[in-house]
């Protein structure tokens, strides 16, 4: 925000605060929200970077495509299901909880592709001739 505008608003009686303070969240509640936001973002980025469709991810976690859409929105899903989807895509827990220099830099970095229980790689596939039109 422009410093002049902020000063004018504060002079008019407005107060600037954090979301945590505004909502009256404890440190633990704030951390839990941060973890959920990181998980949702990481799931979406991992799925796309590994060229896994929502129906494919649903199959990996034993769920449905509409549930995967809700996972990616972070709406109406448990933290357990978020973590299950994240780990199924090859995410590592420490990458999700460790602070990094850039937004999810470790999560989307390159490394050996993780395999599904069926032994199929989740690595990004090259587009087939039919898909490159």
Written account of the structure:
- 52% of the residues lie in helices and 0% in strands.
- The protein is mainly alpha-helical and 133 residues long.
- The chain is elongated.
- The relative contact order is 0.12.
- Helix 3 (27-49) packs parallel to helix 6, helix 4 (54-61) packs across helix 5 and helix 4 (54-61) packs across helix 6 (79-88).
- The model is unreliable at 101-121 and 123-133 (pLDDT under 50).
- The chain has a domain at 26-98: Orthogonal Bundle (434 Repressor (Amino-terminal Domain)).
Topology readout:
Layout lengths: L2 H9 L7 H5 L3 H23 L4 H8 L3 H9 L5 H10 L4 H5 L36
Helix pairs in contact: 3-6, 4-5, 4-6
Concise summary:
The protein has a domain at 26-98: lambda repressor-like DNA-binding domains (434 Repressor (Amino-terminal Domain), Orthogonal Bundle).
Structural class: mainly alpha
CATH fourth-tier homologous superfamily of the domain at 26-98: lambda repressor-like DNA-binding domains
Radius of gyration, CA atoms, in whole angstroms: 19 Å
Spatial shape: elongated
Straight-line N-to-C gap: 44 Å
Please tally the β strands and state the result: 0
Largest sheet: none
Q: The CATH topology of the domain at 26-98, please?
A: 434 Repressor (Amino-terminal Domain)
The residue-averaged pLDDT reads 80
């Amino acid at each position: 925000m422009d410093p002049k505008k902020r000063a004018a608003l504060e002079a008019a009686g407005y107060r600037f605060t954090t979301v945590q303070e505004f909502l009256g969240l404890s440190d633990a509640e704030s951390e839990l929200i941060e973890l959920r936001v990181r998980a949702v973002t990481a799931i979406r980025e991992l799925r796309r970077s590994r060229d896994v469709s929502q129906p494919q991810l649903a199959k990996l976690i034993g769920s449905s495509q509409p549930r995967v859409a809700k996972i990616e929105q972070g709406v109406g899903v448990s933290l357990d299901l978020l973590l299950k989807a994240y780990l199924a895509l090859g995410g590592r827990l420490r990458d999700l909880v460790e602070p990094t220099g850039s937004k999810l830099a470790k999560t989307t970095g390159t490394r050996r592709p993780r395999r599904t229980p069926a032994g199929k790689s989740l690595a990004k596939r090259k587009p087939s001739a039919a898909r490159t039109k």
